[in-house]
Amino acid sequence: MGQFSWIYSDTDKQLLDDVYADTYLLVPKPFQEKYGKAIYEKCYDGYGHFGDYDVYDLVLEWNREMIPEIIRRIKNGTWHTPRYNTEDAIKNLQAYYDGEKIECKPRKLGIYMANHDKDNAILEFPIKITTKELEYENVEPSLNDPNQGWSEDEDDY
Fold it and tell me: To which H or E segment does residue 72 belong?
């Protein structure tokens, strides 16, 4: 299982793994009734978990209506494709969109959709992580942390 981390949208600093720090996964307005304005995490584990949720399960749910466009981009080569069989991705994305059973964990499709900065930024509801609770629409998408949440600076721990 790979690790994932981001750069906070409001401070441009790393979200560090296994370090106590107030962290908020901002929730788009259409989903705030279900999840609240933000999902709080006090010590990020490095695997995409915020509160009781997996960010990649959420990004798939939040961007379900974009799936036909994402499939179109996959087919024409304008979507960055991580290590995942493109035919399987298309089949499972379409099944998820159609409300049918998928043959992988939803997380895998969410990773496919938002694992790269350019793809995340294209999403209607990209991943946005901050150090305080802010309005979702006022914040830029979070960028991937090239160090995957690990710092070489001992003062960070």
Answer: helix 67-76
**Can you tell me the distance from the alpha carbon of 114 to that of 78, in angstroms, rounded to the nearest whole number?**
14
Average pLDDT over residues 20-42: 97
Reply yes or no on whether the pLDDT at 154 is more than 90. Answer: no
Mean pLDDT, the chain, rounded, equals 91
CA dihedral 20, 139, 61, 49 (to 10 degrees): -10
How confident is the model over 66-91, as pLDDT tens digits? 999 999 999 888 887 666 678 898 99
Residues 73 and 40 sit within 8 Å (Cβ to Cβ): no
Q: Could you report how far apart the first and last alpha carbons of the chain are, in Å?
A: 23
Cβ of 89: how many Cβ atoms within 10 Å? 21
**For the chain, what is the radius of gyration of the CA atoms?**
15
Who's near 52: CB < 8 A, 6+ residues apart?
none
For residue 95, give the nearest of 63, 56, 68 by alpha carbon.
68
Check if the beta carbon of residue 46 is closer than 8 Å to that of residue 156.
no
Q: Which residues of 12-23 are buried (b: 16+ CB within 10 A; e: fewer)?
A: eebbbbeeeeeb
